[in-house]
Write a structure and sequence with these properties.
The structure holds three protein chains of three kinds. By secondary structure, chain A is mainly alpha-helical. Chain A has a single domain, classed as Orthogonal Bundle (Arp2/3 complex 21 kDa subunit ARPC3). Chain A is 76% helix and 0% strand. Chain A has seven helices and no strands. In chain A, helix 4 runs antiparallel to helix 5. The longest helix of chain A is centred in the C-terminal third of the chain and has 24 residues. By secondary structure, chain B is an alpha+beta fold. In chain B, 36% of the residues lie in helices and 24% in strands. Chain B contains nine helices and 16 strands. Chain B starts with a helix and ends with a strand. By secondary structure, chain C is an alpha+beta fold. Chain C is 26% helix and 37% strand. Chain C contains two helices and eight strands, in the order αβββββαβββ. Classes of the chains: A mainly alpha, B alpha+beta, C alpha+beta. At the A-C interface, helix 5 and helix 6 of A face helix 1 and helix 2 of C. Strand 8 of chain B pairs parallel with strand 8 of chain C, so a sheet runs across the interface.
């Protein structure tokens, strides 16, 4: 594969991991381990600029490597992250491919909501109590706000054409 | 410094542990959920009480054979059977409780009860022919109580002590708790027979809800309370409600009331009476109350038909 | 980007916010605020049942998977005040005075579920 493409993916992955770790320092209210999903900025950019497979790859790396670094591999937090990240990516891919009525902003918000839904589902099964679902509306509102921010930032970066230029220059 | 802190923490744990205490256990016996709540004592006591229930569950089982000689064993032979002392006494009580006011309590209606149950499950009323056949069987059957815990069944009628076994087991539990000096407890045998001690509050009274009435409850302590409660088990055919309580004189499965609640100081008696009184008139019930020193609440169609003057039914 | 798409996005966001807010209001109203009991679970066993309606101030210590969790009740509310979990999410939760809001210490597998007291001690029939 093109060296330049690999480098770009690596940079995107690294950025995603950094954001994932940074956001883990923000305390989560109510349910331990529920995270906002800032790293989705990079996932969205990868999806829109490079493609589905690449986005899946970056997502996978983000979840696993961030957990290695934080030392939470295979813990409840990791499972929540993993499920949330992939449920979110799955839905975002569906929207990207089939539901073209929305722009990056809409897709980002949907992705954000499903990110927390995935995390809460794992929390319910892991903790064995359905009461956790009562936090969903509260967290969903935060997720929507985050989704908007992530969507705006992603949109700005995509629109600026930074990555498009790289692709044209190095032919990938 | 660290050592002192480490010693201090377990002490705190000890102190905090004495604050809210419930030792609780649930087991499945007598085809229902038994809920044992002790507000003092330990899991050893729970195990002992579970043992009492398990023991009488096995002994009183008339549906299948267990690893000891039980009612099923007796029902499948006309030979002498040596039984556990507990079963011997339980059967004794079952056959003599009609002299304590439970005129309609006949432990020989096991076969008739089963036939009614099968019939009702199919949505059918049992034919008069079969009823009379079964009643005839009961009339010519009896039980011999011989020395050394030997029981001999004469005739083909089957024994069913379901209507007294839970109460009897609760009597044993009560004796056990008394011997262990445990006075704060609530033992709920399938919501049809409950043994209450004293609650951990000022009044010591437990609030017991009455499901056959809306939002009603009574406050009790240190007694046994039983209900016949058919409303949850009754089957309606052609606008008539048939229950699992059979009149051993007429063979009918139609009762005078929907539920009779009996409060007594003897578990086996309350249990047997709550069944038997379903076929008594209110006057007869009042008479039995006087003689046997029990208190009752009689319910039909979600209304109180009669309640003892010493019982206050409260509403939420 | 398409103005139409952007408009759709805004509708989507508004709709989602509305749903979430309505759900939040419903959950808030459906929570019970009086006659509460708190059940403290460690893994799946009930270790303590605390009557919050008594409004007593008490300390409870439960042994969680990785250490001891210190629970405090005050004025009808309950909170985890000390725990050795890395993120202290449960401690940050603070005091809870209503049902439907569980306090969860995932690290120690200690959860506090607050429910309305069932009105009777037992049911007959």
């Amino acid at each position: 594969m093109n060296v330049h493409k690999i480098t770009l993916i690596a940079i995107l992955t690294a950025a995603a991991i950094v954001l994932a770790i940074v956001e883990s320092f923000i305390p989560s209210i109510g349910i331990p381990g529920v995270r906002l999903g800032l790293a989705n900025i990079l996932i969205l950019i990868t999806l829109y600029e490079l493609g589905i497979l690449e986005a899946i790859f970056v997502n996978l790396c983000r979840v696993i490597l961030a957990s290695f670094i934080r030392g939470t591999f295979l813990s409840m937090g990791f499972l929540m992250s993993f499920t949330g990240a992939f449920l979110s990516l799955g839905v975002m891919i569906l929207f990207y491919l089939f539901i073209k009525q929305f722009s990056v902003l809409g897709v980002s918000v949907i992705g954000s909501i499903f990110h927390v839904i995935g995390q809460i589902i794992v929390a319910i099964f892991y903790l064995g109590t359905p009461y956790v679902i009562f936090y969903l509306p509260f967290i969903a509102i935060f997720a929507i706000i985050t989704g908007v921010i992530v969507g705006i930032v992603s949109r700005i970066i995509i629109k600026s054409g930074v990555i498009k230029k790289q692709r044209e220059k190095y032919n990938f | 410094m660290m050592k002192r802190l480490l010693l201090f923490i377990p002490l705190l744990t000890l102190i905090s542990c004495s604050q809210t205490k419930i030792v609780n256990s649930k087991i499945f016996c007598f085809d229902t959920m038994i809920n044992i709540n002790l507000y003092e004592g330990d899991s050893g006591n729970l195990k002992d009480i579970e043992g009492i229930f398990t023991r009488y569950d096995k002994l009183s089982d008339n549906y299948r054979s267990r690893d000891v000689h039980n009612v099923y064993t007796i029902n499948h032979t006309n030979e002498e059977v040596v039984v556990d002392n507990g079963l011997y006494n339980l059967l004794n009580k079952a056959f003599s409780v009609k002299n304590e006011g439970a005129a309609y309590f006949d432990p020989l209606c096991g076969s008739l009860s089963k036939k009614w149950k099968e019939s009702l499950e199919k949505g059918e009323v049992l034919s008069d022919e079969i009823i009379n056949e079964e009643l005839e069987k009961m009339h010519v059957s009896s039980i011999e109580f011989n020395e050394n815990n030997k029981i001999k069944r004469l005739g083909e009628a089957e024994i069913d002590v379901g209507g007294i076994a839970k109460g009897y087991a609760l009597d044993e539990v009560y004796t056990y708790l008394k011997n262990k000096d445990i006075s704060h407890y609530l033992v709920n045998a399938g919501s049809s027979s409950i043994l209450v001690g004293e609650k951990n509050n000022k009044s010591g009274l437990f609030s017991i809800g009455i499901n056959d009435l809306t939002n009603a409850y009574i406050e009790l302590k240190n007694c046994f309370v039983s209900t016949s409660g058919v409303s949850t088990q009754g089957v309606k055919i052609n606008d008539v409600t048939y229950s699992h309580i059979i009149n051993p004189v007429t063979g009918s499965a139609i009762n005078n009331y929907d539920a009779v609640i009996v409060i007594s100081d003897k578990g086996y008696l309350g249990d047997a009476l709550s069944t038997s009184m379903m076929m008594n008139s209110v006057d007869e019930i009042k008479e039995i109350e006087e003689i046997q020193n029990v208190k009752t609440i009689v319910i039909k169609d979600k209304k109180i038909v009669y309640s003892n003057k010493d019982i206050e039914v409260k509403y939420h | 980007m398409d103005k139409k798409k952007l408009r759709n996005d805004i509708f989507l966001i508004a709709a989602l916010l509305l749903i979430a807010t309505i759900a939040l209001i419903i959950f808030s109203f459906s929570s019970i605020k009086k006659n509460l009991i708190a059940k403290v679970y460690v893994q799946n066993d009930v270790k303590e049942v605390i009557d919050l309606s008594k409004k007593e101030e008490n300390d409870y210590f439960v042994q969680g998977t990785h250490g001891e969790v210190h629970i405090h009740t005050y004025n009808g509310g309950i909170a985890i005040v000390e725990s050795n979990c890395p993120h202290q999410d449960c401690v940050h939760m603070g005091y809870v005075y209503e049902s439907n809001k569980p306090i969860i210490c995932a690290y120690n597998e200690v959860y506090i579920i607050i429910e309305g007291k069932s009105l009777n001690d037992a049911e007959l029939g």
